[in-house]
Amino acid sequence: MRRRPSKLVTLPEHVIATPARLAAATAHLSAAPIIGFDTEFVGEDSYRPELCLVQVSSSQALFVIDPFACGPLDAFWEVMTDPAKVIVVHAGREDLRICNFAAGKAPAKVYDVQVAAGLAGLSWPIGYAGLVSELLGHRMNKGETLTDWRRRPLAAAQLRYAFDDVRFLLPAHKKLTDRLTRDQRLEWAEEEFVTFTDKAVADDVTAERWRRVKGTGGFDPRGLAAVRELHAWRDGFAHRVNRPARMLMRDDVLAEIARRLPKSLDDLQNLRGLPRGEQDAILSAVSRARALAADELPGVEPKESDSPQITLMANLLGVVLTDLCSRMKLASNLVATTSDLKAVARSRACGGELPDVQLTRGWRGRHILPELLAVLDGHHALRVVKPTSLAPLAYLPVSEPLPAADATLADGPEESAET
To answer: How many other β-carbons are positioned within 10 Å of the β-carbon of residue 144?
Structure first.
């Protein structure tokens, strides 16, 4: 049964295409405590996405700002990064990155309605149209998804789409905040928003992006060093000419160069897919990798090969997590990943400290992890009490030690044979 649409206030819509109108819109927004924010950009053929449109909303008006027509947006970005303002987005990673690049910093207080939805009983990650439908009962027309936003003039359908992208942000913010407050999860959401913002604008240097180059599995440390140097060269080259890095040189070509470790221009002659005029720079990158001392080479990442017992325990934790999140009306895939569950099971199996993963930090570590550990450590037993329920399990305290027969089985087949 479709939800009855929430009654929304009809707000005036303003297209901002002159410096004077931009100044008036910025003045209006400077007095707004909460601002909805979205952008339209094209990123397929440039190093950084090209900003084509900015959409913002206050409780009193909607604005579509044309950055091609209204001049510099410096004063606007100052408003967006004002520490006193809450900036509401949906799946706003790229929007925050655009703001960070333009203003040198991201908004201080971000509220992502997609993240909030996962903490308030909706699925995660939920699309904007789905969120608006499920939360507010309104249908959105998403027909302009593949629009080339660089072209002018903008058609009426494009403007309608652009206004709709911020029309529902503040009403969704209000509804979700009410739910989170009722369920005492607003603090959880605020933790998530900080982490989300940090990840969105991080330089990603520590993440070793070069390790994600395809075709480098099985490389030795010297080959990996070449991958690292070539990746850094390619990224700098892409930045310089404002083109996507993989468009300038594909991953498989980069990996092949790192595998061959060429020493001269002749060694590169038989390779296709090299950017014109960059052969010397490529050889210099490889040469830097060749010159590294052994202790400067990157390590080969070990492949995780968990025992069947670890996999079994992680699967058990997954069952408990799904059941627990169903009871708590949480999106389980927002709470923890399979990798998190394996890491916790691995730490318990080897008697080590808990791993530093998302599941062991913040609100997850305080409210979710103890329930999982109670089962993993044998303090709670599971029982199926209502198979037709969305949460069919009951958790029973274990007050007695395992019977001798069960304890023998728990030791494993080798120990049993010795007994």
So the answer is: 18
- Compute the distance between CA of residue 273 and CA of residue 255 in angstroms, rounded to an integer: 12
236-239, long-range: CB < 8 A, 24+ apart: 237/275, 237/278, 237/281, 238/47, 239/47
* pLDDT for the residue numbered 217: 86
Domain ranges of the chain: 13-201, 209-296, 308-418
> At 244, is the secondary structure helix, strand, or coil?
coil
Q: What is the pLDDT of residues 140-169, one digit of tens each?
A: 876 666 678 889 899 999 999 999 999 999
Q: How far apart are CA 111 and CA 85, in angstroms?
A: 10
Give the per-residue SS3 of 54-74.
Answer: EEEECCCCEEEECCCCCCCCH
What CATH number is given for 209-296 in this structure? 1.10.150.80
- All residues at 6 or more sequence positions from 397 whose CB lies less than 8 Å from its CB, including other chains: 379, 380, 381
pTM of the complete model:
0.83
One-letter amino acid at 340 equals D
Say if residue 125 is preceded by a cis peptide, omega within 30 of 0. yes
Give the number of other Cβ atoms within 10 Å of residue 68's Cβ: 13
- The candidate with the shortest Cα–Cα distance to 21, out of 79, 53, 63, 59, is 63
Cα separation of 282 and 242, whole Å? Answer: 18
Do 261 and 224 form a contact (C-beta atoms < 8 A)?
A: no
Alpha carbon distance 63, 55 (integer Å): 6
Assigned CATH for 13-201: 3.30.420.10
